[in-house]
Amino acid sequence: MTRLLNFYRVIIICLALAPVCVPAMAQPAAPAQDAPADKGIFKREKDKQEWQKQVEGVDYAKDKDIKITYGDILAAKDESVVFHFSNYQIWMQPFSVFRLNSISAGDGDASAVVPELLFGEALFKGDKGLVMLPGQSMQAQGTVYIVVDEEKYSIVASVEGEQTVLPHGAAEPLTIPPAFMMDLGPAGETGEPFEMFEDDVATYSQQEVPEDSPRVSVKTDQQAVSLEALNEYWNQTRVGLLQDGPESEAGLAIARGEHRQKQPEQVETVQTFTPAEGPAQKTLSFSTSVSSGDNKTALDGAPVLTSVTIGGVSASIGEVLNLTHKNIADDSIKVAGRATVADADKWKLVLKINDEETPLDNITSFDVSIRVVQEFPNAPVVYNVTLADQAAQSFEEDSMLTREDMQSGRIRVAGNASPGRNILTYKLEFVARDNEDKEQSIGSFQADVDVSELQSVEVSKDDGISWEPASGIENWTFDISPSDGETYKVRARATDVMGNRSEEQFDAYIFQYRTKTNNEMLREVFDAMMRAFLDKDRTTFIRSTSNDYGSNIEDLRDLNELETSIEERFRCCTVNIQYTVQDVYANIQAKTGSVEFNWTDKTGVSRATNYAVFNYLYEEGEWKFSEVIDPNTFLRASRTAYFIELEADTFELDADGTQTTQVTARVLDNAGSIVADNVQVNFQTDNGTMSPAAALTSDGNAVATYIAGTSPGTATIIATSGNATNSTTITLNPVAPPLPPDEEQ
To answer: Is there a cis peptide before residue 19, judged by omega within 30 degrees of 0?
Structure first.
């Protein structure tokens, strides 16, 4: 936009002197010496390939109220013209071109009048109004200056009030605050607002619409029409054509106000445009010739281009060709054509490609190749990659896919790809040089080559060692037939027609494949842990436990407590349980799983069926035990007695105060397992003596000796530990009294 910024600075200078000043890039036109210098409003008829006057005899210097209709083109040449609408004015500067358009107001057939700036400069002043620009619409209010250059780039300078710009096809508008400017591209692209100089703001805001300017209004009896976009290449030459005839250096020179000299009639082929037929050619003649802007006189007998093809497409002088990769061969654009010349020996023909000269061997028939070069290509992009319908970004070193993730026996990799926006511009100019080394441009063209096209998408499943083609390009898929236990490192890359690749766009997506389902693999881990528990294999059991293990159960709150409890449990107690799995849930992507089961003590000490849950975390490619939910857990050697079994060596003694029997208290916890060592058990009796009165458990048993009492009958023995208690009885037989001494033998 440097070109446009310089244009903008010129406007500032001119505005200070308006309306007598005309921008330096386009000086006021001088009346033609051999043609009437009348002024008028001009319109391109839809079904004709020429411009015609819409209003005959209109003179901006005299007529102050001009009526126009939808579709009319208003060309301000060397004088300002003002659109007067109900609540705002558009002040067109010299050498500007407007078209009267319309837009639906949203109420049935109602439409609003919309001025459309095609080329030039205009000052907007008023409450609020809609103005159309190349590639966007602007809701203007206050004071705003608008510039559209010959390549349809524009600037909106918001002087007073906030302006709203809506690029065509955009969902959200852009805002330009007061004292800010914004660059706008011809296809709806925009830059960022940047601040204006204070002096410029003051200069703009001081401008007033000239009182003597002609006022243009819309005919009240006209209905709004839907107008197609004008794909015309607007420049000062075309402005000259409106008034003075052929589109040529002569017309441009007239617009500049340069001196014209009478010359023999010449013929020129130019391009025109109609909405119905598109680009076309017509031959115009004119009888004037002028010196060029650098004071060089047009050379007599210079070659005249009769046909040019660029990339196999027929081109007209001044045309911008939009080509694609299909128009180039061997990475080159073919330029071919013919020219007519009276004296071929006098001339040399040169093709300038972006100002680099290429001599042409044959004037009347030439053929040359332009090498297509990308200095800074935009690489293609691969995105939205999924593995088995899961976002690939979530896959890490320990990710796993199973047969549940397969489609028709394969793991599907899918995604999207788009090319980089690579448009190469080549400006071509044919220059004729005579034997005196004088030169003349005989035709210029522009070729915009869009090589933004994808050629292929490839996928690697071994981290880029080998590549295979995917199915499709913009929406592509690739199927992997996996093997059990194999690890895959998936990459995807796109290649465009110029060989640019996106290979290094992202790291490999890694996963391991297992033929078992997630639930089956978790069940295997759980069963292996239970076998290790029943076999008192502490090492295997703890190896399957996460370092992040945690529980709110006493003695099992962290990994250290779990290890201590398991070691004690295996050392002191017989492990004898039976379990039945109720449900298994495994989600590797969420890295969580659980096994719900019921269990009982196979010894039958506790008749209760207990419910428990083992929770798991998926870590480093393995399921790890992370939490137990079981208030009656069998994982710990409890110190809390729940049930006591009492046994005696004999349950019948003589009541002689001396006979004894050993009493064993087997102490169980609420899971039906024996308690830990050193749990105290208290013994007492109502007939005899217990020794000791308190004993500590070892392997779940506390042992004391009962000494018989002297009262025949029964003796009750009671064992107590915490809230657990139990009793048993011993029969004490009467003892015969001793014989008298005289009966003793």
So the answer is: yes
